[in-house]
Give the backbone structure.
Amino acid sequence: MRRGRILNVLFLFFLIFIIPQTIADTNIMSVESNIIRGTASVSVPDTIFLGNVTRGYSIRSDKVYINNTGNVDITVTPQLENSSEEIYSNLYFSTTTTESSFRKIGNFSLNLSKPDVLGGVESDYIYIKLDLTNYNKTVPSDLISYKKNIRFIAMAR
């Protein structure tokens, strides 16, 4: 009887551990990819023309598209390249045309989500206003094609 139990235990052991290992087949697959670090990147138009304006008035742009060309969510902040610039220090930015929503250059930021696909672009638009209604300095002559640079700084969020 004892011998029968030992044989039963050995038979169960054989069924549970030995047979499945001799029947099982395994394959190994390697997984490989390029892991790209997060990059904050933005693109804007090279130039926009606001139009004609004089002291005591303001002028607003049409939609200006800002593109997130990186691979992370970003906050974009426009700043004058030359902080001592007097006329364009009166630039204002907004995501709507509502007058109360415009913020002075340096005090405006726009959040842009990362593109849906790597290498893609996520876009949004802003409005730019040059407000010379309270500009009290003298403009000595017409400034035709007056141009200054605005740097759009993209920071990862």
About this structure: Residues 43-138+149-156 form a domain with the Immunoglobulin-like fold (CATH 2.60.40).
